[in-house]
Amino acid sequence: MDGHSAHSTAPVRSRTSHSQSPSHSASASVCSSAHKRKLASDEHPPTFPLSYSDTKDGALTSNDDLESISARGADSESDDDSEDVVDDDDEEEDNEDSMRVFTTARLENNSNSRNKKIKLENSSMKIDSSSDIPNPKEERGGPTSSVPQPSNVSSISGIVVKEDIVKGIFTENLQTSGAYSAREESLKREEEAGRLKFVCFANDGIDQHMVWLIGLKNIFARQLPNMPKEYIVRLVMDRSHKSVMVIRHNHVVGGITYRPYLSQKFGEIAFCAITADEQVKGYGTRLMNHLKQHARDVDGLTHFLTYADNNAVGYFIKQGFTKEIDLDKDRWQGYIKDYDGGILMECKIDPKLPYTDLSTMIRRQRQAIDEKIRELSNCHIVYPGIDFQKKEAGIPKKIIKVEDIPGLREAGWSPDQWGHSRFRTLNASTDNATYRQSINNFMRTLLKARFMLINKFPAFACKQLMHDHPDAWPFKEPVDARDVPDYYDIIKDPMDLRTMSKRLESEQYYLTFEMFVADVKRMFANARTYNSPETIYYKCATRLREEEMVECESGESA
Ligand SMILES: CC(=O)SCCNC(=O)CCNC(=O)[C@H](O)C(C)(C)COP(=O)(O)OP(=O)(O)OC[C@H]1O[C@@H](n2cnc3c(N)ncnc32)[C@H](O)[C@@H]1OP(=O)(O)O
């Protein structure tokens, strides 16, 4: 229990309003001020638990060392991090304040703990460079594709599909990775190329580590502006805390400071932040994965707990944290500090998962599933589309028979399935009589027996409707864009009686009765969309539509 006394209460964490993650700015701005946590140490500054070992293990020995590191730390951050480059006076002052606390504490503690050498488990995290991950580019296409390819020309049930088409189809369809894996793989490659590394250190007095820790402290100070800087410095430099840091080109980009409770096998995440310019690029995820791997393999931890800021809950959920705490209370209660704001979240560390190489695991799983699906179905094959060249009014140049649609038979369709279609097909070649009868019935009732020729000449009847129905005049011709310049900006699927008439005459367009009805409805819907209710156009459309509803019903029952 005494292990946690140094920070029994903690202040609010919140992101600075000027450095919000681009995708979460709204929530962030709400939350920043919404749940200010009371820092008990404001009234009773917590004791600063730093202790330093002697020069034997490279620890600091004087204020000069400390100050020179402080200066370098600040430099190192300002070199790379534009967010911190533009350190205003305020920021510099803050850093100085932090270092003043740091220095004072060090002086205070030095005398007590000069001989108390703490064995640290600092370790640079192992980066798995043995990669058998094929280049996703190679995997996406070209000769290395693992997808079975047809030898030259594939003939599938009589349909000839050229090899290059199939190749393209296969490879384009193969989803090699989702966004998560793509980001992880890209960062992993950066690591392998040496441009990026993840390290874990505590305050061990080694110059380079101290520079990084101070860089991290500055990022925390910036990203968690409601957190007192002294408090940040105190925990980051506390030797019972460890920090996993993202280092790019030797500069700190972000990190997580946590306290491992080794006897309880859980860790508490105190701070977590990525510098403003680099947020939402996957660093936070990769950092968490490195942390989990390190905490499991080096510290022997099974769980993490953290009080997440409201605006960061989404991030933690994506890292596998939950608001339900399954960990036995006995294991954690009294060990971690209580916050008024923030939400206690837990993450179970899987004993087996390759956290730093999840993308390879996901890719292999995806590949195995893909292969299994291929074994069981043909759904990965995409056939070339129908040659559906159109004449005017959307009428196809040649009649397409359903059975000619590439892939339909291969998918298990057979002509005797016609009757199962939701729509009654009125294809002239297969059901000419039904086609005529349905359309005619519809037109007859639509025209209320005014055109006796309709049974024989539905197209003619349509023309008659154009000319004779008192409400039909606005729909006779396509709307002229010269008269109504914005019409086609608003109406994307125009329809008019002349177009319908052409479609009817062709006897090739309206394969189903529903297609015809859809055009009628579209025509009226367009008029009621574009025109306001008090206009004559709207009223004509409404009156015709009322008739049409009756006609549709009678037409459908025909
Ligand atoms: C215990 C604590 O310290 S609580 C305080 C947490 N820290 C902060 O709020 C400081 C400011 N924020 C940050 O520093 C960073 O945004 C972090 C650390 C929260 C996340 O780091 P990032 O590098 O941005 O995360 P990364 O790019 O890996 O994003 C992982 C996913 O989380 C999402 N995400 C990132 N930040 C947030 C957020 N604040 N809220 C909700 N979702 C988020 C991303 O959109 C992404 O989602 P996707 O996989 O569906 O695309």
TrEMBL record:
Residues 196-350 form the N-acetyltransferase domain. GO terms for biological process: positive regulation of transcription by RNA polymerase II. Transmembrane segments: none annotated. GO terms for cellular component: histone acetyltransferase complex; nucleus. Its main location: nucleus. It comes from the Eukaryota. Its EC number is 2.3.1.48. Residues 121-133, 143-153 have a biased composition (Polar residues). InterPro entries: Acyl_CoA_acyltransferase, Bromodomain, Bromodomain-like_sf, Bromodomain_CS, GCN5, GNAT_dom. Residues 76-96 have a biased composition (Acidic residues). SUPFAM superfamilies: Acyl-CoA N-acyltransferases (Nat), Bromodomain. Residues 1-153 are annotated as: Disordered. Residues 467-538 form the Bromo domain. Residues 17-33 have a biased composition (Low complexity). It is found in: Nucleus. Keywords: Activator, Acyltransferase, Bromodomain, Chromatin regulator, Nucleus, Transcription, Transcription regulation, Transferase. GO terms for molecular function: histone H3 acetyltransferase activity. Belongs to the acetyltransferase family. GCN5 subfamily. This is histone acetyltransferase.
